[in-house]
Design goal:
Elements lengths: L2 H25 L9 E10 L8 E11 L6 E3 L6 E3 L5 E5 L2 E5 L5 E2 L5 E2 L5 E2 L16 E3 L4 E4 L2 E5 L3 E3 L6 E3 L3 E3 L4 E3 L5 E3 L1 E3 L5 H37 L1
Antiparallel strand pairs: 1-2, 3-18, 4-17, 5-6, 5-9, 6-15, 7-8, 10-11, 11-12, 13-16, 14-15
Helix pairs in contact: 1-2
Length: 238
């Protein structure tokens, strides 16, 4: 295969990754706290050893998380929390501490606040948040102060990654932050709301159509290149 074929194949591989990413975004249109993901295309240029034209290859291995806030949806739930502006909740999972924007929690057997799959919500100091069993009323202040029957019991932690570009997506709405994180100075939280997905259905479907057409054009080119090479080989065989 000549250089044009290799270049087209790398482009096709990148388009396939983007199509998979777009499909995943669409599948999470209704997922609480989901952040849209995009694919970054990069161009790598290699100099020819014999002084001929350089060779350009496309690469789409890097992914970028869209940090725009999703819509806040009123639920009225006592343990449904949402963050306005920047920052993430910190939860403890079997794999370690992770960041998330999904704020649907429920009290566990001992009063600890848990996600649907059992991850513990952590406070500003990194300790699990507990609500006293039998508390008649639980309120969350806009600064993250959690109170039970009028008495402060915890401060919900809100953190931001030190290097947002190094966020690694796990389990859809959770992120590992290899670069570490720091507390948000003035967090803004609301109780009885959940943050919806920040995916735009119209934008994603439009992008899916664009990627599909680009992939079809690339496949047409490869088919024509294949036929050209076959024609040359047949001419030599005569």
């Amino acid at each position: 295969m000549d250089n044009a074929g290799y270049v087209t194949l790398t482009r096709q591989a990148g388009l396939l990754r983007e199509m998979q990413t777009v499909a995943n975004n669409i599948a999470n249109l209704s997922t609480t706290g989901y952040r849209r993901e995009g694919v970054i295309f990069a161009e790598h240029v290699a100099r020819s050893d014999d002084g001929g034209p350089s060779l350009s290859m496309a690469d789409a291995a890097a992914r970028l998380t869209d940090e725009r806030q999703g819509p806040l949806e009123r639920t009225g739930g006592t343990y449904d929390f949402a963050i306005e502006g920047e920052g993430f909740f910190l939860v403890m999972t079997p794999e370690g501490e992770r960041l998330t924007r999904a704020g649907a929690f429920t009290p566990g057997p001992e009063g600890q606040l848990l996600t649907a799959d059992g991850a513990q919500l952590l406070d500003a100091g990194g300790a699990p948040v507990f609500v006293p069993p039998g508390a008649r009323s639980v309120a969350l202040g806009s600064d993250g102060t959690l109170s039970a029957d009028g008495q402060p019991i915890a401060e919900i932690g809100v953190f931001r990654p030190l290097d947002p570009l190094r966020l690694v997506r796990e389990h859809g709405t959770r992120f590992a932050a290899p670069g570490g994180w720091e507390p948000v100075a003035e967090p803004r939280l609301v109780q009885g709301f959940l943050e919806g997905s920040n995916v735009s259905a119209v934008s994603e479907i439009t992008r899916m159509i664009e990627v599909s057409r680009a992939y079809e054009l690339g496949q047409t080119f490869l088919d024509r290149e294949d036929e050209r090479i076959r024609a040359v080989l047949r001419s030599f065989a005569r």
